[in-house]
């Protein structure tokens, strides 16, 4: 079995043209992850530039209203650039700098990862090119302009289904064209090894902080941690340091779109099967011939036909549960959190909020849920208005 | 170890510089693919790579991506492809290899896939997203059904070249350029040095692909390599002429084959 395995999942299924680049990245990461200077530099960036540590906020009104468990919100939405994506991007950009790379490329779905990458590129002086599906540049027009403002070039991807999957395809193609000076800042815990490990390590700061914060506030561990899952980077970040704590339920919320019994879904664990795609063995939405399915979710960031290999293994070993959440449930939760706590979550994060709304009333009042609010919802306001039949300009 | 005299694929490189043609199966239809493959052979192709269409062909440029989309929209499936190959095997002895991605093989069932390859008469597979490190996924089973897993070597392979070449059977697919498939006006990679590196450890024939479309390029490359692979230029003709592409393909491949060094 090759490197980077999580149970049967993971691996390095990529063209030969990229193998030396992947090996170089792996060696650099093995070196720098244990390098004190690198870690100090990264911590300073995370704290002083990105605004970490993020708050663990007790959502008192929401908890009371739902009448069950105490709900804490891990406020990744308060990070610079508005989501958890910056955690990984600052780490990878710093690593790329150490490796002598001068150009960053990245895929983006909702635009959060693209914005974070463009931001780090501006900060650290990289050339930057972002690939985004046409469907997504249409529904997240504001983020497209934001990336341009930050000095990045945005390529509109018109191949395939014109969403996140196709943006990943196009970024991989671009990397094979120009690999020498270019680092591919993969945005989720997916792709070939070492990406799932690198991204997870950089995102695990979420659960490292949350674990300390909840012990300080409550003197005990939470009963459940909930996060939304597309590729799964915020979820693995929120889960990782709780994995050894067997009493903590880990719950990933997949985008069910119009429902798992329809074709308009992106719920990989609920509807997918084992496959090998985008560099990894994992679960994918696909047909009997291994053709990747066109998936759908209201959330551009969760609109992906696969799931990271570590999640696939957490599912196999039953350490984590994965539940589908529909567009309707997510939009309701989006509005509910805005109204109840004055926090507008990203539509991605609203999938996690939605499941907390189901779970909390079934739990006791002294039990605790941590929900990872992976991003803020400013980018989604116009789309939600449209969903509710109100046509407003962005 | 590759036996150059008995290996069905290696043999075609023995007495002449080989012309390897690629097309995407099912574009515009399976019947037409069958007709085109036979036309390619009549025009002088020594080996044909048949692309199994995939929804997300990450190693392909726009020309072959679009062919994949056309084929899938027209209803191409792996099963229909095996049926077509069986028919073709009644009419030709020319070696045939599949080019596809690992997922269509894996999901079909690796054992089932290679058994069907043997039964229908496929001699090899090229899997662009299955590097050396992962080839154990299919190699044992493929070999047991007498299907060669073709080794790809890239301009970036450098210190990996000899490790890759040592185990190569059938032929070595030397990728001429960085990036994805597609017609290129110029090939800048120092192919001579890579080929010399390979030759230190392997006698397996070397065919160069990616970017080759003109007789001049084919002539130059066949001066150092054992064969040339042409894909996008052929697929482009099929895209343009559709069902009527047969004759134009014949003329094109004939002129390419004639341009090869002897």
Oligomerization state of this entry? heterodimer
Range of helix content of chain B:
40-55%
Q: Strand-residue fraction of chain A?
A: 15-25%
Rg from Cα of chain B? 17 Å
Domain count of chain B: the total is 1
Distance between the termini of chain B: 27 Å
Question: Which series of helices and strands of chain B comes N to C?
Answer: HEHEHHEHHEHEEHEHEHEHH
Biggest interface, and residues per chain?
A: A-B, 39 and 44 residues
Largest sheet of chain A: 6 strands, mixed
Neighbour order of strands in the largest sheet of chain A: 3-4-14-9-10-13
Total strand count of chain A, please? 14
Largest sheet, strands/sense/barrel of chain B: 9 strands, parallel
Features:
heterodimer; A: 394 residues; four-stranded antiparallel sheet; 19% strand; B: alpha/beta; TIM Barrel; nine-stranded parallel sheet; 12 helices; 14% strand; TrpB-like_PALP (chain A)
Can you describe this structure in just a few lines?
The complex is a heterodimer of chains A (394) and B (262). Chain A is built from 16 helices and 14 strands.
Give the SSE map.
The complex is a heterodimer of chains A (394) and B (262).
Chain A: E1 5-6, E2 9-13, H1 16-32, H2 36-49, E3 56-58, H3 60-66, E4 70-75, H4 85-98, E5 103-108, H5 112-124, E6 127-133, H6 134-139, H7 141-149, E7 153-157, H8 164-177, E8 182-184, H9 195-203, H10 205-218, E9 224-229, H11 233-239, E10 249-257, H12 268-271, E11 273-277, E12 279-284, H13 309-316, E13 320-326, H14 327-341, H15 347-359, E14 368-373, H16 381-387
Parallel strand pairs in A: 4-14, 5-6, 5-8, 6-7, 9-10, 9-14, 10-13
Antiparallel strand pairs in A: 1-2, 2-12, 3-4, 11-12
Chain B: H1 8-11, E1 18-24, H2 30-42, E2 47-51, H3 62-73, H4 78-89, E3 96-99, H5 102-108, H6 110-120, E4 124-126, H7 139-144, E5 148-149, E6 151-153, H8 161-166, E7 172-175, H9 191-201, E8 206-209, H10 215-222, E9 227-230, H11 232-241, H12 246-259
Helix pairs in contact in B: 2-4, 2-12, 4-6, 10-12, 11-12
């Amino acid at each position: 079995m090759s490197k980077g395995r999580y149970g049967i999942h993971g691996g390095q299924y990529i063209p030969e043209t990229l193998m030396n680049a992947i090996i170089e990245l792996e060696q650099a990461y093995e070196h720098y992850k244990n390098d004190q200077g690198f870690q100090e530099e990264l911590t300073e960036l995370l704290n002083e530039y990105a605004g970490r540590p993020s708050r663990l906020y007790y959502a008192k009104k929401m908890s009371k209203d739902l009448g069950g468990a105490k709900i804490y919100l891990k406020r990744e939405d308060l990070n610079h650039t508005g989501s958890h994506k910056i955690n990984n991007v600052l780490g990878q950009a710093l690593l790329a700098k150490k490796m002598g790379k001068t150009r960053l490329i990245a895929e983006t779905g909702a635009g959060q990862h693209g914005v974070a990458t463009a931001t780090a590129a501006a900060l650290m002086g990289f050339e930057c090119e972002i690939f985004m599906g046409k469907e997504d540049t249409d529904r997240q027009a504001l983020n497209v302009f934001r990336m341009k403002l930050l000095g990045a070039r945005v390529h509109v991807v018109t191949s395939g289904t014109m969403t996140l999957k196709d943006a990943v395809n196009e970024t991989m193609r671009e990397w094979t064209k120009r690999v020498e000076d270019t680092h591919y800042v993969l945005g989720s815990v997916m792709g070939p090894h070492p990406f799932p490990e690198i991204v997870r390590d950089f995102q695990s700061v979420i659960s490292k902080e949350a674990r300390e914060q909840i012990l300080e506030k409550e003197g005990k561990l939470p009963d459940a941690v909930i996060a939304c899952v597309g590729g799964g980077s915020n979820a693995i970040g929120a889960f990782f340091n709780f994995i050894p704590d067997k009493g903590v339920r880990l719950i990933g919320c997949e985008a069910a779109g119009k429902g798992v019994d329809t074709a308009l879904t992106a719920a990989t664990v609920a509807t997918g099967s084992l496959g090998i795609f985008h560099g990894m063995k994992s679960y994918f939405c696909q047909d009997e011939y291994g053709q990747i399915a066109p998936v759908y979710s209201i959330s551009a960031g969760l609109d992906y036909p696969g799931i990271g290999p570590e999640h696939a293994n957490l599912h196999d070993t039953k350490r984590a549960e994965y539940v589908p959440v529909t567009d309707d449930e997510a939009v309701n939760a989006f509005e509910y959190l805005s109204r109840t706590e004055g926090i507008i979550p990203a539509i991605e994060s609203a999938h996690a909020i939605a499941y907390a709304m189901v779970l909390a009333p079934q739990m006791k009042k002294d039990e605790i849920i941590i929900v990872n609010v992976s991003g803020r919802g400013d980018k989604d306001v116009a789309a939600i208005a449209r969903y509710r039949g109100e046509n407003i300009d962005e | 170890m590759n036996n150059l005299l008995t290996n069905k694929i290696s043999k075609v490189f023995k007495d002449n510089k080989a012309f390897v043609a690629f097309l995407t199966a099912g574009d515009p239809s399976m019947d037409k693919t069958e007709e085109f493959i036979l036309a390619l052979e009549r025009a002088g192709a020594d080996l044909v790579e048949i692309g199994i269409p995939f929804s997300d062909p990450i190693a392909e440029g726009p020309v072959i991506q679009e062919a994949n989309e056309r084929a899938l929209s027209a209803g191409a499936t792996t099963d229909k492809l095996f049926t077509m190959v069986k028919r073709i095997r009644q009419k030709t002895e020319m070696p045939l290899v599949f080019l596809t991605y690992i997922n269509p093989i894996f999901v079909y069932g690796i054992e089932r896939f290679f058994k069907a390859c043997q039964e229908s008469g496929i001699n090899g597979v090229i899997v662009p997203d299955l590097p050396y490190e992962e080839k154990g996924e299919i190699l044992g089973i493929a070999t047991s059904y007498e299907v060669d897993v073709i080794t790809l070597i890239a301009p970036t392979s450098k210190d990996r070249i000899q490790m890759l070449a040592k185990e190569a059977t059938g032929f070595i697919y030397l990728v001429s350029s960085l990036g994805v498939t597609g017609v290129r006006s110029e090939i800048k990679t120092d192919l001579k040095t890579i080929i010399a590196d390979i030759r230190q450890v392997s006698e397996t024939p070397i065919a160069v692909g990616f970017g080759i479309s003109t007789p001049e390029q084919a002539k130059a490359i066949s001066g150092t390599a054992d064969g040339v692979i042409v894909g996008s230029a052929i697929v482009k003709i099929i895209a343009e002429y559709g069902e009527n592409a047969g004759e134009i393909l014949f003329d094109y491949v004939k002129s390419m084959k004639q341009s090869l060094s002897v």
